[in-house]
Amino acid sequence: MKKLIIISAPSGAGKTTLIKEILKENFNLEFSISTCSREKRKGEIDKK
Q1: List of residues 6+ apart from 22 with CB closer than 8 A
Q2: Backbone phi, then psi, for 18, in 5-degree steps?
Q3: What are the tens digits of pLDDT across the range 5-46?
Q4: Do 30 and 24 contact (CB within 8 A), yes or no?
Q5: Cα–Cα distance between 34 and 23 in angstroms, integer?
Q6: Which long-range contacts (CB under 8 A, 24 or more apart) does 27-30 make?
Q7: pLDDT confidence of 48, banded at 50, 70, 90?
Q8: What span, in angstroms and rounded, lies between the C-alpha atoms of 41 and 32?
Q9: DSSP state string for 1-48
Q10: Rg (CA), the chain
């Protein structure tokens, strides 16, 4: 059985840092990057 875990927070809150630490523990999890429907902000760079 598969389970879905959603980590949600505003930009810069540390979601990716938290996920990277969890993945280091080898719980047989996968990381999926979602997309955003809003327009890019001025100066925003894809995947950064």
Answers
A1: 29
A2: -60, -45
A3: 888 888 889 988 999 999 999 888 888 877 777 787 888 887
A4: no
A5: 17
A6: 29/5
A7: low
A8: 22
A9: ----------TTSSHHHHHHHHHHT--S---------SPPPTT--TT-
A10: 13
Length of the chain as a residue count:
48
Tokens coding 38? 């809003």
Looking at the whole model, is its pTM more than 0.85?
A: no
Q: In the structure encoding, which two tokens stand for residue 20, read together?
A: 């990277």
What local confidence, expressed as pLDDT, does residue 13 receive? 92
Under 8 Å between Cβ of 29 and 18: no
